[in-house]
Design goal:
Helix 2 packs across helix 8. This protein has a six-stranded mixed beta sheet with strand order 1-2-6-3-5-4, sandwiched between helices. A six-stranded mixed beta sheet has the order 9-10-8-11-7-12, sandwiched between helices. It has two domains: 229 residues, Cytochrome Bc1 Complex, Chain A, domain 1; 190 residues, 2-Layer Sandwich (Cytochrome Bc1 Complex, Chain A, domain 1), CATH 3.30.830. The chain is globular. The protein starts with a helix and ends in a 9-residue tail after the last strand. By secondary structure, the chain is of the alpha+beta class. The protein contains 17 helices and twelve strands.
């Protein structure tokens, strides 16, 4: 009930439809211990939201311990300070708040929201989680084993949950982005509590941490409370990971993941895309929306609506400090594997050759402009948005002016991003999960084939 009340009093600060979005005033300070504190005061409702991040994330995983950052992040909310896992969760629930932790590619993220009157409790819980996590041995084993079971269950029931992990391992082979963010069956089985402690000691520290707080809060009092709670936190002992952009693939190559007896083929077509700092973000978002980013996109229309080859097809860009992948993803019945792949590749060929029809651009602009303000409605949204600016070194103009930039996207802009950001259909990594005995000859049509069993304990070919 209390959480429902918190949701009902969410902080609404979005601009009216069609207007640009302005970033409300906020304060940014670096505390004496090196921790960064960002505070946005909004007195509309008695709610405080926060997002904290510790730089590092999965990119800091040791090469033979993929998934240790993910485990470390999950364990932050499983007991800290004087509270065990149950007591920690019960304290959050008793205050009607929320508290979650997860490891991303580049940072471990902790987020939540509380009523304004519970500011001190919020700071206490966050300080405990970041500085004094218990890392209970039983919790380490429980979460690690649960992750392994999830991977095995996904292989048995819905490999689409894993295809991007196979894809990144193949596309980015030899690069840190190839490592499975959540770990593999093999790597998770080797991770111990000592590995988690080692990761924490090396990568957690005040100098790596940014805390963003938004909502009904006194900025001066909050700063004093945070300084007291984190005054003894030292710098991280290890070096932050430094990652260079991965080279794009040239030509086509295929990874065939054998799932004997499967009645469907899951497919993923990709190449290296663009970074979060890509300057043509607005036209890229408009073009990808039209190509594969919504139900009425070209890709989904061709593969689902017109041909009935699938229940859904989409495209997306994964954008970090360095470029992630551009990927097309879908699935089809085994017998229609070749037809579906040909059609997906044909839509990319058509996009590269013909661009986006002028009559569609207005629809894309309207859709993107309609969706953008919805991501900046609540206190939690703003905490996440400001954390994103901090993590990726972006300015206010990443938010302000975006609506105007989208409105100004024209045919020349669309052609430019199609040429620079979308891969050639001749340069693709193609991942297929299906019955190899039935689709092996089809796979050979698209390039040299590397084959591995779905049952293998890793996501990369042996």
């Amino acid at each position: 009930m209390m959480r429902a009340c918190l949701a009902a009093v969410a902080l609404l600060v979005a601009a009216p439809a069609g207007a640009d979005v302005r970033v409300p005033d906020y304060e940014r300070v670096v505390l004496p211990n090196g921790m960064t504190l960002v505070t946005m005061v909004r007195r509309d409702v008695p709610l405080i939201a926060f997002t904290a991040f510790v730089r590092g994330g999965a990119l800091a995983d040791p090469p033979d311990r993929a998934g240790v950052a993910s485990l470390t992040g999950a364990l932050l909310e499983r007991g800290a300070g004087s509270r065990d896992a149950f007591q920690f969760a019960d304290t959050v629930e008793g205050a009607g708040g929320s508290f979650s932790a997860v490891a991303g590619v580049e940072a471990v993220l902790v987020s939540g929201q509380f009523l304004a009157r519970d500011r001190d409790l919020m700071v206490e819980l966050l300080a405990d989680a970041l500085q004094r996590p218990k890392f209970d041995a039983d919790e380490v084993t429980r979460i690690r084993d649960r992750r392994v079971e999830f991977i095995r269950a996904a292989k048995d029931t819905d490999p689409s949950d894993l295809i991007a992990t196979y894809g990144r391992a193949f596309l980015f082979a030899g690069h840190p982005l190839a490592s499975p963010q959540g770990g593999s069956e093999r790597s998770l089985a080797t991770i111990t509590r000592e590995d988690v402690l080692g990761f924490y000691r090396a990568h957690f520290g005040a100098d790596r941490t940014t805390l963003v707080v938004t909502g009904d809060v006194d900025a001066r009092a909050l700063r004093a409370a945070v300084e007291r709670a984190f005054s003894g936190w030292a710098r991280a002992a290890g070096a932050a990971p430094q990652v260079r952009p991965a080279p794009a693939t040239t030509g086509r190559r295929v990874l065939l993941v054998d799932q004997p007896g499967s009645s469907q083929t899951y497919f993923w077509l990709a190449n290296v895309g663009v970074a979060r700092s890509f300057p043509d973000r607005a036209p890229l978002d408009v073009v990808n929306t039209l190509y594969g980013g919504r139900f009425t996109s070209v890709l989904n229309t061709e593969l689902r609506v017109r041909t009935g080859l699938t229940y859904g097809a989409s495209s997306s860009f994964t954008r970090g400090s360095v470029p992630g992948e551009f990927a097309i993803v879908s699935f089809t019945q085994t017998a229609s594997t070749e037809r579906a792949l040909d059609l997906a590749i044909h839509t990319l060929e058509r996009l590269k050759r013909d661009g986006v029809p002028a009559e569609l651009l207005d629809s894309g602009r309207t859709f993107v402009r309609g969706q953008f303000p919805l991501r900046l409605e609540t206190a939690s949204h703003w905490a996440s948005a400001l954390a994103e600016l901090e993590l990726y070194g972006l300015g206010r103009d990443y938010i302000e002016g975006y609506m105007a930039a989208v409105a100004a996207v024209g045919e020349a802009d669309a052609r430019r991003v199609i040429a620079s950001a979308f891969p050639s259909p001749d340069d693709l990594v193609i991942v297929l999960i299906g019955d190899a005995a039935l689709i092996r000859d089809v796979a050979k049509k698209y390039g040299p084939v590397t084959e591995m069993p779905l049952a293998a304990p890793d996501f990369r070919p042996g």
